[in-house]
Protein: Glutamyl-tRNA(Gln) amidotransferase subunit B, chloroplastic/mitochondrial
Amino acid sequence: MALLLCRGIRMYPPLLNYAAFLRRKSHVFYCAMSTTEAQTATQGSQSTPIKISPHRKEKGLDDVLKDYEAIIGIETHVQLSTLTKAFCSCPYHYGSQPNTNICPVCMGLPGALPVLNSKVIECAVKLGLALNCKLNIKSKFDRKQYFYPDLPKGYQISQFDVPVAYGGHIDLDLPVEFGGGHRRFGITRVHMEEDAGKLLHSGNGRVPLLEIVSEPDMRNGIEAAEYAAELQRLVRYLGVGNGNMQEGSLRCDVNISVRPIGQVKFGTKVEIKNLNSFSSVNRAIDFEIVRQALLLSEGQDDQIVQETRLWEEGSQKTVTMRKKEGLSDYRYFPEPDLPGVILTKDYVDSICNCLPELPEVKRRRYEKMGLSMQDILFLANDVNVAEFFDATIAKGADVKLAANWIMGDIAAYMKNEKLSIDDIKLTPQELAELIASIKGGTISGKIGKEILFELMAKGGTVKGMIEEKDLVQIADPAEIEKMVDKVLLDNPKQLEQYRGGKTKLQGYFAGQVMKASKGKANPGLLNKILLEKLNAKS
Structure:
């Protein structure tokens, strides 16, 4: 089967090294783009060979793309953090051995009746409300018929014409390095369904799943990747799933078509699967836009067919997987073994009242605090980091200083130690105390850093550590003056050089005083006294 599939793949020579055309920075979440040389196209394809213009090399990529625009929509599948599967009581554990967590309902055996997991409805309503959707008070399930090895019963329980939620939108902010700005992307629908099994790992399928279908509002890989990242944030903020793409807990199927600028009619839609990172989403879309634009520019639009393509990470290209099924191929009909889902007003209101502060609301609140967009995007990206920051400023810490400490030394420590902010021993209370101690002059910034790293590794309190190690900053002018006089007396040659014009030696003298004070001398007071002494007439 695999051999036949590979023989059916036909590659377009100018695109084998397409990344050479796309020399631009990648996304803040992304790796730098790169590509490997692909092998030449295999022979034996039944499709019509693509004719290459002799002037292809003379046409720059920008010249091709300036005449076309991409229309991009995304179908996002979110696995829910439930204890059991969607329609039976079998447990769901990622990484379980194949064919262990199964039952007659999972297999669709005769006489086995599915029962809807109520937690799935709760998650669907939460996500629908968070995406500003309208809710269908009465929705139903349908059977989606198709044969695939990971779908042993031959159909999938899904929602077709009456989804649980529809007509919403999601707001996000693009990173400053990509022009910044606010974006709003439409949400077509949110529907409940069961996930298929896995052919290579964790097997057993039927995991509770929500599918989010966007409007075709995106125009490039950056916007699409940011949209997917925002959905991941939303899922984690709500607690409905972990959103881990590497586990398949959040998967994106991208639909792309390209059309001449000014044309109202959409081009032929191509779906791309196998996207397991935001970087893959970005690079796969950019590749596919180039592929379709080049074909259109050559007048070979008949070579763009409605199909499903896979993104190959190694060769950095999309390849044909199968011709795309149409709605009629799925033969939808109402699921006879499940009743409809009816939502009451009290049920919806109870969920609405329990929703947490969502990423977009949090970003706008941080913006009103005066934080930069770079700070805002970092802090709001992780719900746990955001909660740590909020708890710190709630203890009275300066907003900007708290953000700087979290984004700087704390983030660096977590990265080096491969820890999350919940894993470190530092508490928001002690970070606020540390900031206050430095700001109030009790300890220096240098001593503050030393205390910070010990607090993150071992825990404890700022006050206790200052007293235990005698770290209180020296702020007595007379004591600092004595240390300055001694340093100048011990370094007559450097003093002569300073007064001869080498004023950069001020840093040398300051370092010697700090060394003598074991880092406890007040830096501001030290520099003031030192300058007076250095510039005094001998």
